[in-house]
Every structure is written in structure tokens, then in C-alpha cells.
Amino acid sequence: MSETVFYILAGFILIFSVLTVTSRRILRTAVYLFFVLLGTCGFFFAMEFNFLGAVQLTVYAGGIVVIIIFSIMLTSDLQDKLEAAGVSKIFFSLLAVTAGAAVCISTILSYKFPALTNNVLDSSMNTIGLRLLGYQENGFVLPFEVISILLLAAMIGSIIIAKKADVNK
User: Fold this and answer.
1) pTM over 0.85, yes/no
2) Domains and CATH numbers, the chain
3) In the chain, is it the N or the C terminus that has fewer CB atoms within a 10 Å radius of its CB?
């Protein structure tokens, strides 16, 4: 993957991630999240992981964000603004971000990346289909079940956030 494409996508994701967590309008936050997930999808396509890119595009960028936007539009007034974050929330958020970044960076730096091999993997539709239905070591049934729970949690969470604004009126 070209370094230029990497830095463009990383900057795109970084900008929209910050906009996602700092915006006070809930619909704009959902749209910014959509752009973050599109940028992540761009990473997969740039690395030529087309299947993962398509899954990222349909499940996350398509599924979760559309559910969140529909839930917001059906349950709240789009003119409402979220409350501004207090100093303690900002402090603990920065503390959590710093701790998460430290864990990620230390994990990456301590991991011994294996050398690349030239093994050709079987990527026929039959093999992909069997892996999607499999629950063994290389199966994908468990991740798809986790994604379905994530979609449900996203909808419930967005409804709770939207209904919280109705209760405050």
C-alpha cells in the first residue's frame, strides 16, 4: 500500500473521529461516524482485502450507521443539541485515550511480526462459503453473531440517547 494513500486515509479517519466525539448535534455525529467507517473500509481496499472491505462497507458503514440514523430520526428532534462535556468528562476521556494508545503502541512494538511467506491461499467461493458457515479455527459464524449483537446494541443505544432528549423536555 502506498504511503501517501495510508497517510491520506489516516488523516481522514483522524479528522472525522475527532468530529464524531466533539460534535454536539447527534445526527452530524452519526454522519461523521459513517465517514470514519468509510475510511477504515478504504484501508481494507488499499491493502487488497476486498472481501473485508466489502463487509466493512455493508455491515458497519451501511448497517450500523443506517440503523443509528433511522433511530435518531424516528425518536428525536434533529434541532436538539447534546449537552457540552464537563471538565471531568474531558479529563477522564483524555486519560482513557492515553491509556488505550499506550496499550496499543506497546503491544505493536513488542509483537514479533513473522516474515511473509509466499503461500497461496485458496480463495474460491466454495472455501469462503465453508468458512463463513464454519465455527472451527478459521470459521466466521461467531464474528457474524457478535456483529448481530452489535447491531442490536447500536439500535438500543441510539434509541436510549434519543429518548433521553424527550424526557428532558
Assistant:
1) no
2) 3-109+121-167 (1.20.120.1200)
3) C
